[in-house]
């Protein structure tokens, strides 16, 4: 039972933070579309803004799936 509760918390965490990252990327795409090809940070020059947005969306989807699946197991 503790593993299911842990999966639920991890799924919710991935969903929320992935969604926030995706929203950030969408706002950047609307406000400054020329920044999409720029690196996300000087610490990660290999990760571009547009790639970060796509990864954030995938993480959000995966987290939502895990969260909902774990919620179904507890019922």
Structural description of this entry:
This protein is an all-alpha fold. It contains 2 helices and no strands. It has helices at residues 2-31, 49-74. The longest helix is centred in the N-terminal third of the chain and has 30 residues, at 2-31. It starts with a helix and ends with a helix.
Unreliable stretches covering 5 or more consecutive residues: none
Structural class: mainly alpha
Compute the number of helices.
2
C-alpha-based Rg, rounded = 15 Å
What is the averaged pLDDT score? 93
Q: How much strand?
A: under 5%
Globally, the shape reads elongated
Number of strands: 0
Helical residue percent band: over 70%
The number of distinct structural domains comes to 1
Q: What summary fits the major beta sheet?
A: none
Order of helices and strands: HH
Distance between the termini: 11 Å
Brief descriptors of the model:
single chain, 75 residues, mainly alpha, 2 helices, 75% helix
Write a concise synopsis of the structure shown.
By secondary structure, the chain is an all-alpha fold. 75% of the residues lie in helices and 0% in strands.
